[in-house]
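Technical annex, item 7. During the second reporting period the consortium partners agreed on a shared format for inverse folding records so that results from different sites could be compared directly. Each record opens with the tokenized structure and is followed by the designed sequence. A conforming record, contributed by the partner at site C, is shown below for reference.
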């Protein structure tokens, strides 16, 4: 997911995306633990996407309060 895509989302869309990414991260952890994970780089991508979504959501909520 690109930063420009995240910036175009609303706060509600960001929250929905965050829930989706958290579920994917949970599933990836299970796959890694059971030895079924094929694309190990996806763990890193999801972790960074979560951070990206959280950062933009925080910026947008701070801008709304100001």
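Designed sequence (site C submission):
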């Amino acid at each position: 997911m690109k930063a420009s895509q995240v910036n175009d989302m609303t706060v509600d869309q960001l929250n929905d995306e965050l829930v989706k990414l958290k579920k994917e991260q949970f599933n990836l952890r299970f796959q890694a633990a059971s030895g079924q994970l094929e694309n190990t780089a996806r763990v890193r991508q999801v972790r960074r996407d979560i951070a990206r979504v959280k950062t933009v959501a925080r910026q947008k909520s701070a801008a709304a309060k100001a």
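The chain has one domain: 3-65. The chain has a mean pLDDT of 95. All partners now use this format for quarterly exchanges.
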